[in-house]
Amino acid sequence: MAKGPTPGHGPLTGVRVVELAGIGPGPFAAMLLADLGADVVRVDRPGGAGLGIDPAHDLTNRNKRSVVLDLKSDEGPARVLDLVERADILVEGYRPGVAERLGVGPDACLARNPKLVYGRMTGWGQDGPLADRAGHDIAYIALTGTLSMIGGPDEPPTVPANLVGDYAGGSLYLVVGVLAALQHARAHGEGQVVDAAIVDGAAHLATMIHGMLAAGGWQDRRGANLLDGGCPFYGTYATSDGGHMAVGPLEGRFYAEFARLLGIADAFPDRWDLARWDELRAAVTERFLTRTRAEWTEVFAGTDACVAPVLSLTEAPHHPHLAARSTFVEHGGRTQPAPAPRFSATPVSVRTGPALPGADTEAVAADWDVPGLRPTPRD
Protein backbone atom coordinates (compact mmCIF):
# COMPACT_ATOMS: atom_id res chain seq x y z
CA MET A 1 0.00 0.00 0.00
CA ALA A 2 1.39 3.39 -0.96
CA LYS A 3 2.36 5.71 1.87
CA GLY A 4 1.97 9.44 2.16
CA PRO A 5 4.27 11.66 4.23
CA THR A 6 3.57 11.61 7.96
CA PRO A 7 3.89 15.20 9.25
CA GLY A 8 4.80 16.10 12.80
CA HIS A 9 7.10 13.15 13.50
CA GLY A 10 10.63 14.23 14.38
CA PRO A 11 12.74 17.38 14.16
CA LEU A 12 13.38 16.95 10.40
CA THR A 13 9.69 17.08 9.49
CA GLY A 14 9.41 19.10 6.29
CA VAL A 15 12.90 18.22 5.05
CA ARG A 16 12.87 16.41 1.72
CA VAL A 17 15.57 13.88 0.86
CA VAL A 18 16.28 12.04 -2.38
CA GLU A 19 18.20 8.79 -1.87
CA LEU A 20 19.76 7.14 -4.89
CA ALA A 21 19.56 3.45 -3.98
CA GLY A 22 22.74 1.69 -2.95
CA ILE A 23 23.94 -0.67 -0.23
CA GLY A 24 25.42 -0.28 3.24
CA PRO A 25 26.15 3.15 4.69
CA GLY A 26 24.11 5.24 2.23
CA PRO A 27 20.79 3.53 3.00
CA PHE A 28 21.53 3.59 6.73
CA ALA A 29 22.26 7.31 6.64
CA ALA A 30 19.02 7.93 4.75
CA MET A 31 17.18 5.75 7.28
CA LEU A 32 18.49 7.91 10.11
CA LEU A 33 17.26 11.04 8.32
CA ALA A 34 13.89 9.33 7.81
CA ASP A 35 13.76 8.25 11.45
CA LEU A 36 14.26 11.89 12.40
CA GLY A 37 11.21 12.87 10.37
CA ALA A 38 12.52 13.70 6.90
CA ASP A 39 10.44 12.70 3.87
CA VAL A 40 12.96 10.36 2.23
CA VAL A 41 12.20 9.20 -1.29
CA ARG A 42 14.41 6.32 -2.32
CA VAL A 43 15.04 6.02 -6.04
CA ASP A 44 15.30 2.28 -6.61
CA ARG A 45 16.72 0.80 -9.76
CA PRO A 46 14.90 -1.84 -11.81
CA GLY A 47 15.93 -5.26 -10.52
CA GLY A 48 17.05 -4.07 -7.09
CA ALA A 49 20.48 -3.65 -5.48
CA GLY A 50 23.28 -6.14 -6.03
CA LEU A 51 23.63 -7.26 -2.41
CA GLY A 52 20.18 -6.31 -1.19
CA ILE A 53 18.11 -8.50 1.10
CA ASP A 54 14.41 -9.09 0.60
CA PRO A 55 12.99 -5.52 0.48
CA ALA A 56 10.19 -6.53 2.82
CA HIS A 57 12.77 -7.21 5.56
CA ASP A 58 15.27 -4.43 4.85
CA LEU A 59 14.84 -2.33 7.97
CA THR A 60 17.20 0.34 6.66
CA ASN A 61 14.36 1.30 4.32
CA ARG A 62 11.83 1.95 7.08
CA ASN A 63 10.13 5.34 7.29
CA LYS A 64 10.94 5.95 3.60
CA ARG A 65 9.02 5.93 0.33
CA SER A 66 10.17 4.41 -2.95
CA VAL A 67 9.96 5.09 -6.64
CA VAL A 68 11.65 3.04 -9.36
CA LEU A 69 13.61 4.83 -12.07
CA ASP A 70 16.10 3.54 -14.61
CA LEU A 71 18.91 6.09 -14.57
CA LYS A 72 20.32 4.56 -17.75
CA SER A 73 17.15 5.37 -19.66
CA ASP A 74 16.40 8.62 -21.45
CA GLU A 75 13.80 9.71 -18.89
CA GLY A 76 15.34 8.46 -15.65
CA PRO A 77 17.86 11.26 -14.98
CA ALA A 78 15.28 13.92 -15.88
CA ARG A 79 12.84 12.55 -13.32
CA VAL A 80 15.56 12.51 -10.65
CA LEU A 81 16.30 16.15 -11.41
CA ASP A 82 12.59 16.90 -11.07
CA LEU A 83 12.78 15.45 -7.56
CA VAL A 84 16.05 17.27 -6.84
CA GLU A 85 14.40 20.59 -7.71
CA ARG A 86 12.02 20.06 -4.78
CA ALA A 87 14.52 18.43 -2.37
CA ASP A 88 16.75 19.74 0.40
CA ILE A 89 19.23 16.86 0.45
CA LEU A 90 20.40 14.16 -1.96
CA VAL A 91 22.30 11.06 -0.81
CA GLU A 92 24.23 8.83 -3.21
CA GLY A 93 26.83 6.12 -2.73
CA TYR A 94 28.24 5.48 -6.20
CA ARG A 95 31.92 5.31 -7.04
CA PRO A 96 33.35 8.73 -8.00
CA GLY A 97 32.21 9.82 -11.44
CA VAL A 98 29.28 7.41 -11.76
CA ALA A 99 26.59 9.92 -10.81
CA GLU A 100 28.11 12.39 -13.26
CA ARG A 101 27.99 9.84 -16.08
CA LEU A 102 24.36 9.11 -15.26
CA GLY A 103 23.50 12.80 -15.51
CA VAL A 104 22.70 13.28 -11.82
CA GLY A 105 26.05 14.49 -10.50
CA PRO A 106 26.57 17.59 -8.35
CA ASP A 107 26.86 20.05 -11.23
CA ALA A 108 23.59 18.96 -12.82
CA CYS A 109 21.74 18.83 -9.51
CA LEU A 110 23.03 22.14 -8.13
CA ALA A 111 22.26 23.83 -11.44
CA ARG A 112 18.67 22.70 -10.97
CA ASN A 113 18.57 23.52 -7.25
CA PRO A 114 21.36 25.83 -5.98
CA LYS A 115 20.36 25.26 -2.34
CA LEU A 116 20.69 21.48 -2.55
CA VAL A 117 22.95 19.60 -0.14
CA TYR A 118 24.55 16.84 -2.21
CA GLY A 119 25.76 14.07 0.10
CA ARG A 120 28.30 11.60 -1.30
CA MET A 121 28.99 8.37 0.58
CA THR A 122 32.06 6.36 -0.41
CA GLY A 123 34.71 4.24 1.22
CA TRP A 124 37.84 5.88 -0.19
CA GLY A 125 36.50 9.38 -0.87
CA GLN A 126 36.08 11.40 -4.04
CA ASP A 127 39.82 11.71 -4.72
CA GLY A 128 43.11 10.02 -3.96
CA PRO A 129 44.90 7.02 -5.50
CA LEU A 130 42.27 4.50 -4.33
CA ALA A 131 39.18 6.62 -5.06
CA ASP A 132 38.01 4.53 -8.01
CA ARG A 133 38.76 1.14 -6.44
CA ALA A 134 36.19 -1.28 -5.06
CA GLY A 135 36.18 -1.91 -1.33
CA HIS A 136 34.19 -2.78 1.76
CA ASP A 137 34.17 -1.84 5.42
CA ILE A 138 36.97 -4.20 6.42
CA ALA A 139 39.46 -2.68 3.97
CA TYR A 140 38.62 0.88 4.97
CA ILE A 141 39.14 0.33 8.68
CA ALA A 142 42.25 -1.75 7.95
CA LEU A 143 43.95 1.10 6.12
CA THR A 144 43.18 3.70 8.79
CA GLY A 145 44.75 1.70 11.62
CA THR A 146 41.39 1.25 13.32
CA LEU A 147 41.18 -2.49 12.70
CA SER A 148 44.67 -3.02 14.09
CA MET A 149 43.45 -2.02 17.56
CA ILE A 150 40.71 -4.65 17.84
CA GLY A 151 41.38 -8.18 19.10
CA GLY A 152 43.75 -10.18 21.27
CA PRO A 153 47.51 -9.59 21.29
CA ASP A 154 48.37 -12.99 19.83
CA GLU A 155 45.44 -13.25 17.43
CA PRO A 156 44.53 -11.71 14.08
CA PRO A 157 42.51 -8.47 14.31
CA THR A 158 38.85 -9.08 15.16
CA VAL A 159 36.30 -7.96 12.57
CA PRO A 160 33.67 -5.75 14.30
CA ALA A 161 30.91 -6.62 11.80
CA ASN A 162 30.48 -3.53 9.60
CA LEU A 163 29.66 -1.20 12.45
CA VAL A 164 32.91 0.75 12.82
CA GLY A 165 33.48 1.56 9.15
CA ASP A 166 30.21 1.57 7.23
CA TYR A 167 27.96 2.94 9.93
CA ALA A 168 30.09 4.81 12.49
CA GLY A 169 32.78 6.15 10.15
CA GLY A 170 30.45 6.39 7.17
CA SER A 171 26.73 6.86 7.77
CA LEU A 172 26.96 8.95 10.92
CA TYR A 173 29.53 11.31 9.44
CA LEU A 174 27.43 11.71 6.30
CA VAL A 175 24.39 12.60 8.42
CA VAL A 176 26.36 15.13 10.47
CA GLY A 177 27.75 16.57 7.25
CA VAL A 178 24.48 16.96 5.37
CA LEU A 179 22.70 18.45 8.38
CA ALA A 180 25.52 20.96 8.90
CA ALA A 181 25.40 21.83 5.20
CA LEU A 182 21.61 22.13 5.37
CA GLN A 183 21.98 24.69 8.14
CA HIS A 184 24.39 26.64 5.94
CA ALA A 185 22.07 26.39 2.94
CA ARG A 186 19.13 27.71 4.91
CA ALA A 187 21.17 30.56 6.38
CA HIS A 188 22.99 31.60 3.19
CA GLY A 189 21.01 30.12 0.30
CA GLU A 190 24.05 28.17 -0.84
CA GLY A 191 24.09 24.42 -1.39
CA GLN A 192 27.24 22.33 -1.53
CA VAL A 193 28.74 18.86 -1.87
CA VAL A 194 29.48 16.78 1.24
CA ASP A 195 32.27 14.25 0.64
CA ALA A 196 31.81 11.63 3.37
CA ALA A 197 34.52 8.95 3.10
CA ILE A 198 34.60 5.99 5.45
CA VAL A 199 38.39 6.23 5.69
CA ASP A 200 38.07 9.81 6.91
CA GLY A 201 35.38 9.01 9.47
CA ALA A 202 37.04 5.83 10.74
CA ALA A 203 40.31 7.70 11.20
CA HIS A 204 38.51 10.57 12.95
CA LEU A 205 36.89 8.15 15.41
CA ALA A 206 40.34 7.32 16.76
CA THR A 207 41.29 10.94 17.55
CA MET A 208 41.51 10.32 21.30
CA ILE A 209 43.65 7.22 20.75
CA HIS A 210 46.07 9.20 18.57
CA GLY A 211 46.33 11.75 21.36
CA MET A 212 47.11 9.04 23.88
CA LEU A 213 49.66 7.55 21.45
CA ALA A 214 51.40 10.91 21.11
CA ALA A 215 51.44 11.33 24.88
CA GLY A 216 52.97 7.91 25.44
CA GLY A 217 49.81 6.56 27.01
CA TRP A 218 48.96 4.09 24.26
CA GLN A 219 51.06 1.33 22.72
CA ASP A 220 50.66 0.78 19.00
CA ARG A 221 49.80 -2.90 19.38
CA ARG A 222 46.66 -4.87 20.24
CA GLY A 223 45.71 -6.02 23.70
CA ALA A 224 48.27 -3.90 25.52
CA ASN A 225 46.26 -0.85 26.55
CA LEU A 226 43.62 0.34 28.96
CA LEU A 227 40.68 0.24 26.53
CA ASP A 228 41.58 -2.55 24.09
CA GLY A 229 41.42 -5.59 26.36
CA GLY A 230 44.97 -5.32 27.62
CA CYS A 231 43.77 -4.22 31.04
CA PRO A 232 42.44 -7.09 33.22
CA PHE A 233 39.62 -4.94 34.57
CA TYR A 234 38.41 -3.79 31.16
CA GLY A 235 37.41 -6.76 29.04
CA THR A 236 35.23 -9.85 28.82
CA TYR A 237 35.31 -13.10 30.79
CA ALA A 238 33.73 -16.50 30.22
CA THR A 239 31.30 -17.95 32.75
CA SER A 240 30.71 -21.57 33.72
CA ASP A 241 27.85 -22.01 31.24
CA GLY A 242 29.68 -20.62 28.22
CA GLY A 243 28.33 -17.08 28.56
CA HIS A 244 30.39 -13.95 29.05
CA MET A 245 30.48 -10.95 31.36
CA ALA A 246 31.74 -7.51 30.34
CA VAL A 247 33.93 -5.83 32.97
CA GLY A 248 34.87 -2.13 33.03
CA PRO A 249 35.42 -0.63 36.52
CA LEU A 250 38.16 1.85 35.61
CA GLU A 251 37.56 4.27 38.49
CA GLY A 252 38.90 3.37 41.92
CA ARG A 253 35.64 3.24 43.82
CA PHE A 254 33.99 1.17 41.11
CA TYR A 255 36.91 -1.25 41.02
CA ALA A 256 36.78 -1.65 44.79
CA GLU A 257 33.16 -2.74 44.56
CA PHE A 258 33.96 -5.05 41.65
CA ALA A 259 36.83 -6.71 43.49
CA ARG A 260 34.75 -7.15 46.64
CA LEU A 261 31.81 -8.73 44.84
CA LEU A 262 34.07 -10.94 42.73
CA GLY A 263 35.92 -12.08 45.83
CA ILE A 264 39.46 -10.91 45.03
CA ALA A 265 39.66 -7.70 47.08
CA ASP A 266 42.35 -8.99 49.43
CA ALA A 267 44.47 -10.71 46.78
CA PHE A 268 45.37 -7.71 44.60
CA PRO A 269 45.38 -4.42 46.50
CA ASP A 270 47.31 -2.52 43.77
CA ARG A 271 45.51 -2.94 40.48
CA TRP A 272 47.94 -0.58 38.73
CA ASP A 273 50.88 -2.91 39.29
CA LEU A 274 51.31 -3.77 35.61
CA ALA A 275 53.80 -6.49 36.47
CA ARG A 276 50.95 -8.42 38.11
CA TRP A 277 48.32 -7.83 35.44
CA ASP A 278 48.67 -11.35 34.04
CA GLU A 279 48.23 -12.71 37.55
CA LEU A 280 45.21 -10.50 38.14
CA ARG A 281 43.67 -11.54 34.82
CA ALA A 282 44.12 -15.22 35.71
CA ALA A 283 42.40 -14.68 39.06
CA VAL A 284 39.47 -12.83 37.49
CA THR A 285 39.17 -15.53 34.83
CA GLU A 286 39.11 -18.27 37.45
CA ARG A 287 36.49 -16.54 39.56
CA PHE A 288 34.08 -15.93 36.66
CA LEU A 289 34.29 -19.59 35.69
CA THR A 290 32.80 -20.59 39.03
CA ARG A 291 29.27 -19.36 38.23
CA THR A 292 26.87 -19.00 35.33
CA ARG A 293 26.22 -15.76 33.49
CA ALA A 294 22.83 -15.44 35.18
CA GLU A 295 24.37 -15.97 38.62
CA TRP A 296 27.05 -13.34 38.08
CA THR A 297 24.44 -10.96 36.68
CA GLU A 298 22.55 -11.32 39.94
CA VAL A 299 25.72 -10.76 42.00
CA PHE A 300 26.45 -7.45 40.28
CA ALA A 301 22.84 -6.30 39.90
CA GLY A 302 22.14 -2.89 41.41
CA THR A 303 25.82 -2.05 41.98
CA ASP A 304 28.33 0.40 40.52
CA ALA A 305 30.85 -2.33 39.74
CA CYS A 306 30.45 -1.66 35.98
CA VAL A 307 29.78 -5.28 35.06
CA ALA A 308 27.15 -6.43 32.56
CA PRO A 309 26.22 -9.70 30.86
CA VAL A 310 27.11 -9.98 27.19
CA LEU A 311 23.73 -10.49 25.53
CA SER A 312 23.01 -11.80 22.06
CA LEU A 313 21.06 -9.87 19.43
CA THR A 314 17.89 -11.80 20.26
CA GLU A 315 18.38 -11.52 24.03
CA ALA A 316 19.02 -7.78 24.14
CA PRO A 317 15.44 -6.58 23.49
CA HIS A 318 14.26 -8.49 26.57
CA HIS A 319 16.67 -6.91 29.05
CA PRO A 320 14.61 -5.05 31.68
CA HIS A 321 16.41 -1.73 31.19
CA LEU A 322 16.15 -1.77 27.40
CA ALA A 323 12.55 -2.93 27.61
CA ALA A 324 11.68 -0.11 30.03
CA ARG A 325 13.19 2.46 27.66
CA SER A 326 11.70 0.83 24.55
CA THR A 327 15.18 0.75 23.05
CA PHE A 328 13.81 -1.95 20.76
CA VAL A 329 10.33 -1.75 19.26
CA GLU A 330 8.12 -4.04 17.24
CA HIS A 331 6.62 -2.84 14.00
CA GLY A 332 4.99 -4.98 11.36
CA GLY A 333 5.93 -8.12 13.27
CA ARG A 334 9.65 -7.26 13.29
CA THR A 335 11.62 -6.43 16.42
CA GLN A 336 14.10 -3.68 15.64
CA PRO A 337 16.13 -0.91 17.27
CA ALA A 338 14.04 2.18 17.91
CA PRO A 339 15.05 5.48 16.30
CA ALA A 340 17.71 7.37 18.24
CA PRO A 341 18.38 9.83 19.78
CA ARG A 342 15.25 11.04 21.55
CA PHE A 343 13.65 14.47 21.45
CA SER A 344 11.39 16.08 24.04
CA ALA A 345 9.43 18.35 21.67
CA THR A 346 9.58 16.39 18.39
CA PRO A 347 9.47 12.67 19.25
CA VAL A 348 10.58 10.14 16.66
CA SER A 349 9.18 6.69 15.91
CA VAL A 350 9.04 3.84 13.44
CA ARG A 351 6.16 5.13 11.34
CA THR A 352 6.21 2.72 8.42
CA GLY A 353 7.84 -0.55 7.48
CA PRO A 354 10.44 -1.03 4.76
CA ALA A 355 9.59 0.80 1.54
CA LEU A 356 8.92 -1.67 -1.25
CA PRO A 357 10.48 -0.69 -4.59
CA GLY A 358 8.13 1.50 -6.58
CA ALA A 359 5.22 1.19 -4.17
CA ASP A 360 4.94 4.94 -3.54
CA THR A 361 5.29 6.32 -7.05
CA GLU A 362 1.78 7.77 -7.27
CA ALA A 363 1.91 9.31 -3.80
CA VAL A 364 5.32 10.89 -4.35
CA ALA A 365 4.29 12.19 -7.76
CA ALA A 366 1.37 13.97 -6.11
CA ASP A 367 3.08 15.14 -2.91
CA TRP A 368 6.22 16.41 -4.63
CA ASP A 369 4.34 17.66 -7.70
CA VAL A 370 6.36 15.55 -10.14
CA PRO A 371 3.73 14.24 -12.55
CA GLY A 372 6.42 12.81 -14.81
CA LEU A 373 7.00 10.04 -12.27
CA ARG A 374 3.69 8.43 -13.24
CA PRO A 375 4.01 5.70 -15.85
CA THR A 376 2.91 6.70 -19.32
CA PRO A 377 -0.30 4.84 -20.23
CA ARG A 378 0.13 2.37 -23.06
CA ASP A 379 -2.26 2.26 -26.00
Explained architecture:
This protein has helices at 25-35, 76-85, 98-102, 106-112, 137-143, 163-188, 198-205, 207-214, 252-262, 277-288, 293-300, 320-325, 361-367, and strands at 16-20, 39-44, 64-68, 89-92, 117-122, 192-197, 235-238, 244-247, 307-309, 328-331, 334-337. With 379 residues, the chain is of the alpha/beta class. It has a 6-stranded parallel beta sheet, sandwiched between helices. It has a 3-stranded antiparallel beta sheet with strand order 7-8-9, with helices on one face.
Topology (elements, then pairings):
Layout: E1 16-20, H1 25-35, E2 39-44, E3 64-68, H2 76-85, E4 89-92, H3 98-102, H4 106-112, E5 117-122, H5 137-143, H6 163-188, E6 192-197, H7 198-205, H8 207-214, E7 235-238, E8 244-247, H9 252-262, H10 277-288, H11 293-300, E9 307-309, H12 320-325, E10 328-331, E11 334-337, H13 361-367
